Amino acid sequence: MEVVVSRLQLALIFSLLVASLSLLVRSSSPELQILTAERRIDLTSHIVRVYLTLKVENTGASPASEILLAFPPTQVDHIAQIKAAATVGKKKKKSYLPLVVNPTERPDAPNGTKYFSVSFLSPLSTGESVTLEVFFTLTHSLEPFPVEISQSESQLVYYHDSAKILSPYDIKQQITLVKTPSKKVESFTRVEPTGFAGTELKYGPYMDSPSYSFSPIIVHFENNNAFAVVEELLREVEISHWGSIQITEHYKLVHNGARHKGVFSRVEYQSRPSFGGVSSFKNLLAQLPPRVHSVYYRDEIGNISTSHLRTDFRKSELEIEPRYPLFGGWKATFLIGYGLPLEDFLFQSPDGRRYLNLSFGCPLAETVVDKLTVKVVLPEGSKNPSAVVPFSAEQHLETSYSYLDVVGRTTVVLEKKNVVPEHNSPFQVYYNFHPIFMLAEPLMLASVFFLLFIACVAYLHMDIAIRK
Ligand SMILES: *[C@@H]1O[C@H](CO)[C@@H](O)[C@H](O)[C@H]1NC(C)=O
Ligand SMILES: *[C@@H]1O[C@H](CO)[C@@H](O)[C@H](O)[C@H]1NC(C)=O
Ligand SMILES: *[C@@H]1O[C@H](CO)[C@@H](O)[C@H](O)[C@H]1NC(C)=O
């Protein structure tokens, strides 16, 4: 009995403590205010890019270490990448210092709002202000309407957002500029003052917007860009210390724009290219590293020779042309393979480990990859692999076998969803490798040849024996 009571008392004391603590936290939680906010929304591609410039002031009594960025729940799943930087210096001496951005939660979030927290370089003291630059990309955020178009029609899409920036802080003054790919804007929601000139829509300036202000807007406009989406991309990177780095990329590409209606007329397509199929695409550009060699491109039917490779000392460009132009909803499955010189991508770190340093994302220009898998097949005998990727990606290990392998090759598998061109930054795979294993492959080869030789000799002897 006594024990029960004391436990109860303990629990009571504990809950009281928690309550007073949370009160303390709340009362001293820093208060921020956004003095000016400028947002530029770039709708000229099928990937939406948003640039935010915020001037933030600490109006609270205690120093603030972070600021929250708020997003409607419908938008947060489409964020492929988000970056923030602090602006230091003025005018010409301006420079940007990257800041740490992390997804975060708040228990009292209204309407399912989602948050990212941006940590300041140093805590912002009372009355102090700082200027931040935020950049994020959204995928699958343009909705074709009409959903089906015929070959001769132009593609129109909807973009949904808010004229006022969603924020947990009051915003004293704000403006939003929306850039469209052409002057053809069918309609847009007005939230006065609203203006439209050339290819730019202007929302605001709006003064003194309280926290969580939200004014939904819809922009309906023409966008005939290649809505190139790779539903699945598998990049296999094979390292051989004897030869080169061999890369094989398996693509499942789809045109994700308005679905094609009716029958496809090649005659119309070829005779009036400016009228027929404006929203379709017939080629894509892959940016490959310089000094690439043995490039091939093929699909289920076989090699496609209509691809063009241009190389210079900085980069190589491969123009890929599927067998037919791609219209909305159409798919193409293909494979690209190429070799890279070992010395350009494989290095030794100061601690003696070897490492691969390669670009992570998809080499196709302006393409969204829904699911990317990168497999790095290390040479036989490699130990303790570890991967360093500059953003969150799932990692695990596998063993793959190819001809002449005895114990199999350690394979580092990296997986990431919702990949955009901004993810084309270098990643590294470190591993230990004893040079004795360099001999494994030639030794295997030699022994195979030797066995073959023995077999031949034996066979010849038998043959001779029979003839006798
Ligand atoms: C939250 O939802 C309510 C009711 O649906 C709506 O009136 C309000 O404007 C919404 N607020 C935000 C920030 O979306
Ligand atoms: C396709 O091209 C590759 C590389 O040039 C070559 O190895 C392969 O034999 C070719 N295949 C066919 C079916 O032509
Ligand atoms: C990887 O390569 C890039 C250039 O492609 C270079 O800037 C970077 O420093 C390299 N990283 C390492 C760890 O070597």
TrEMBL record:
GO cellular component: oligosaccharyltransferase complex
Location(s), subcellular: Endoplasmic reticulum membrane
Pathway note: Protein modification; protein glycosylation
Membrane topology term: Single-pass type I membrane protein
Leader sequence residues: 1-27
One Gene Ontology biological process: protein N-linked glycosylation via asparagine
Alphabetized UniProt keyword annotations: Endoplasmic reticulum, Membrane, Signal, Transmembrane, Transmembrane helix
Primary localization: endoplasmic reticulum
Family membership: Belongs to the OST1 family.
Subunit structure: Component of the oligosaccharyltransferase (OST) complex.
Protein name: Dolichyl-diphosphooligosaccharide--protein glycosyltransferase subunit 1
Organism lineage: Eukaryota, Viridiplantae, Streptophyta, Embryophyta, Tracheophyta
